[in-house]
Amino acid sequence: QSLNFPPDQPPEPVYLGDSRLVLTGEYYIDVDDLQHFQLWLWNSASGSLVYTDEMVFEDMEEAEGYLPPMVSWIFSHVPVDQRITVLQTGPQEEVTDQGADEDQETRNSLFTGRLYLGLRGGGSFNAYSSLVGGGYEAGTSQGFSGNGAVVLEFRIFRFLGLQAEAIFNYDTFKVAKITANLPTVGQSLRSTDRFSAMSLMFPLLVKVPLEIGVFSLSPFVGIYYAMPLGKVHMDPSDSRTAAAASYTYTVNPPLGLVLGIDTGLTLGPGELFLDLRFSRDIGMTVAEKGYGIQYVRNQIGLSLGYKFLIWKKRPVL
Fold first, then answer.
1. Residue 62's CB: how many other CB atoms inside 10 A?
2. Is the terminal CB of the chain with fewer CB neighbours within 10 Å at N or C?
3. Residue 222, beta-bridge partner list
4. Alpha-carbon torsion (4, 31, 53, 163), positive or negative
5. Region label for 31, one of left (φ > 0), alpha (ψ between -120 and 50) or beta (otherwise)
6. For position 166, what pLDDT does the model report?
7. In 101-166, which ranges are continuous DSSP H helix?
8. How far is Cα 9 from Cα 186, in angstroms, rounded to an integer?
9. CA angle (261, 127, 181) in 5-degree steps
10. Per-residue pLDDT for 268 more than 70?
11. Rounded to a whole number, what is the distance in angstroms from the first to the last CA of the chain?
């Protein structure tokens, strides 16, 4: 018989009889014309999910190669020699699971083998710690950045992944400058110059993904290479005392540290994720020699992105 119920929920007990486990499935085609088939294995008594897995394929010939190991892999999570009844959206059939090799099952469960490629964009609140030089005062100033990134993530094991990124930053901030000293009254005249600069960052991160159903939580830590892009541009607050100018700049050493966390939601052919991170330049940013502006950048950033699952390892059975 044909049953009509949501495949991602356990069927009503009236359909299950005395079966202790039940398998449901769903087939659909995404916007990129890739075909998906997902299976769910349920505990009939409690309605709890035992295991789920999904395969992506382009044609039926490819599906015929993926389906047998996928079904066997799902059944390997059932206790050895336990008889189960499989409830499908077509005719019912009885399947006997003889279990899987314990060592191979352990390797399959630990080695997730998934590769993601995606984009993210957002902004950050920045603090710039500047030194005395070129008439500028030492201290901390605040500013903002807009950024966009390309993300490549490889989840090697269940609790270990590597992520490489290429990030474009546009920074803006202000620094106080002493324009004149008034020794007779013991005061100084000050103005504020506005700076803007573009840069590229190339982080390499180590992640610890914690997956709970369709949600994931991934703390990460890493190091990045910072590369100036173009020149740093200065706009004076008072055009009568100075003119706008642009200067080449360097970051020495061009390295930084980053730590943070991202939260993901499995959606369609990939994951929607929110990224929260703190990063700090190890090196000092110095404008053109002789000009004097020097600072260390700290960033607290928040961004939203989406990454596509472009490869997933097949279980070895």
1. 13
2. N
3. 205, 258
4. negative
5. alpha
6. 98
7. 102-110
8. 77
9. 175
10. yes
11. 32
DSSP per-residue string spanning 222-270: EEEEEEEEEEEEEE-S-TTT---EEE-EEEES-EEEEEEEEEEEEETTE
pLDDT digits (tens, 9 = 90+) for 150-185: 999 999 988 999 999 999 999 999 887 766 555 555
What 8-state DSSP symbol labels residue 95? E
What backbone torsions phi and psi does residue 230 show, to the nearest 5 degrees? 80, -150
**Angle (CA) 160 161 165, round 5°:** 155
Model confidence pTM above 0.70: no
Distance from C-alpha of 151 to C-alpha of 129, rounded to nearest angstrom: 29
Scanning the structure block, which residue is given the tokens 């070895």?
Answer: 316
Instruction: Name the β-bridge partners of 167.
Output: 149, 201
Q: What is the reported pLDDT for 80? A: 56
Query: What is the C-alpha to C-alpha distance for residues 263 and 275, in angstroms, rounded to an integer?
Result: 7
Amino acid at 295: Y
Which of 214, 209, 295 lies closest to 249 in space, CA to CA? 295
Structure tokens that stand for 180 in this block: 């004149």
Chain-centroid distance of CA 161 in Å reads 11
The answer to whether 22 and 11 are in contact (CB under 8 A) is yes
- The token pair at 147 is 């950024």
Task: Tell me how far CA of residue 150 lies from CA of 86, 201, 250, in angstroms.
Answer: 43, 11, 24
306 contacts 270 by C-beta, under 8 angstroms: yes
Helices (H), 78-177: 102-110
Residue 265 half-sphere exposure toward CB, CA atoms < 13 A: 5
For 128, the enclosing helix (H) or strand (E) is strand 111-130
Query: What's the CA gap between 68 and 169, in Å, rounded?
Result: 47
Q: How far is CA 130 from the centre of its chain?
A: 31
